[in-house]
């Protein structure tokens, strides 16, 4: 029996090139209207009892091909638990194998966070006591940009995720953050709700998420290069969120992302903005240091290079919010690989640990909110 390969579902992305015995050759589709690609997600049926080798032939041309070495594909039999498959990268080809003891298996760049799960999260959280739901706007495909707000304090906190839709760990993070913030027995959540008003946007790019894109929206636009001048034609998602931020102001912000290459969790700041002050920078560095001291799921040694004075890219949200509002703003990056300082040899970086990191970051914010 010839195995069946399918990606005709929410977030799916793969093209079948050929099947040659137990070897299956594939290509990843580009984001629509863009040259970006790296996210893949597909289903295999009809392979029980066989060991198949999969080869992604165009991996060498992916947006962040330098991130493939050390990466391991995620595989699941039930789309709930995702483990790492044996994976190699050589000569521009990503190869992985799987021994099938079930009728179906799913393979993905990272454990997917589906549109249906997003809708379920929004419905559940909108019913939680003290939570208000607002639709900030619509995407190019007409999908809602959902925002959940809770808390009564004067400090305005914004946490938003999935500008880059293939970074699915970011919405697992948001699920964890919302679960903690709506836990009425959690002391840190109570502190934050009393000191701040918190606005959470779990998915800023629902179109790209549904289409199986890595980095762009329905127009092929990278949303995290639109914050200096968003438009209804190119980036209504950013326009909707930034307009809401202009209404409230921003004291503290986390833009949640995933990084293809660095095997660790880290934050990037806003060095290089025109209005940089050492006092504002100290708030950012102090938060990062306190978070690293709190949890082994975060570190400060690995990360991105810092921009020089006056050289910050203001089209990126963290820099724009720090400059526009004087906010303590940061970009959180989680790995597609694993958090090497505290690894999991079976699952790698995972949905559950993404949620754990969200909890630790909110605990740290609760300790420091009074000084922000």
TrEMBL record:
Pfam families: Pepdidase_M14_N, Peptidase_M14. InterPro entries: Cytosolic_carboxypeptidase (IPR050821), Pepdidase_M14_N (IPR040626), Peptidase_M14 (IPR000834). The active site is at 333 (proton donor/acceptor). Residues 111-369 form the Peptidase M14 domain. Belongs to the peptidase M14 family. This is Murein tripeptide amidase MpaA. CDD domains: M14_PaCCP-like. Its cofactor is Zn(2+).
């Amino acid at each position: 029996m010839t195995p069946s390969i399918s990606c005709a579902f929410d977030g799916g992305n793969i093209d079948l090139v050929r099947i040659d015995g137990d070897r299956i050759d594939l290509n990843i589709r580009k984001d629509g209207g863009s040259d970006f690609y790296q996210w893949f997600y597909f289903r295999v049926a009809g392979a029980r009892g066989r060991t198949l080798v999969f080869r992604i032939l165009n991996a060498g041309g992916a947006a962040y091909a330098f991130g493939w070495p050390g990466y391991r594909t995620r595989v699941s039999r039930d789309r709930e638990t995702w483990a790492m498959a044996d994976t190699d990268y050589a000569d521009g080809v990503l190869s992985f194998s799987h021994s099938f003891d079930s009728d179906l298996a799913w393979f993905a760049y990272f454990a997917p966070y589906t549109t249906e799960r997003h809708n379920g999260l929004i419905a559940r959280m909108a019913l939680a006591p003290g939570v208000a739901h607002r639709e900030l706007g619509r995407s190019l495909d007409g999908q809602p940009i959902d925002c959940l707000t809770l808390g009564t304090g004067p400090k305005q906190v914004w946490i938003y995720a999935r500008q880059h839709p293939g970074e699915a760990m970011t919405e697992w993070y948001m699920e964890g953050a919302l679960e903690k913030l709506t836990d009425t027995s959690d002391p840190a959540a109570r502190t934050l709700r009393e000191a701040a008003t918190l606005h959470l946007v779990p998915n800023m790019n629902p179109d790209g998420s549904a289409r199986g894109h890595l980095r762009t929206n329905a127009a092929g636009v990278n949303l995290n290069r639109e914050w200096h001048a968003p438009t209804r034609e190119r980036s209504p998602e950013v326009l909707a969120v930034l307009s809401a931020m202009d209404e409230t102001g921003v004291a503290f912000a986390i833009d949640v992302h995933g990084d293809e290459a660095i095997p660790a969790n880290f934050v990037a700041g806003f060095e290089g903005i025109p209005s940089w002050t050492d006092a504002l920078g100290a708030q950012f560095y102090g938060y990062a240091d306190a978070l690293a001291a709190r949890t082994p799921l975060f570190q400060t040694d690995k990360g991105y290079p810092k921009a020089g004075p006056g050289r910050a890219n203001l089209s990126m949200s963290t820099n724009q919010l720090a400059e526009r509002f004087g906010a303590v703003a940061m970009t959180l990056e989680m790995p597609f690989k694993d958090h090497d300082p505290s690894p999991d040899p079976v699952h790698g970086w995972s949905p559950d640990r993404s949620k754990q990191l969200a909890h630790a970051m909110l605990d740290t914010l609760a300790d420091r909110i009074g000084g922000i």
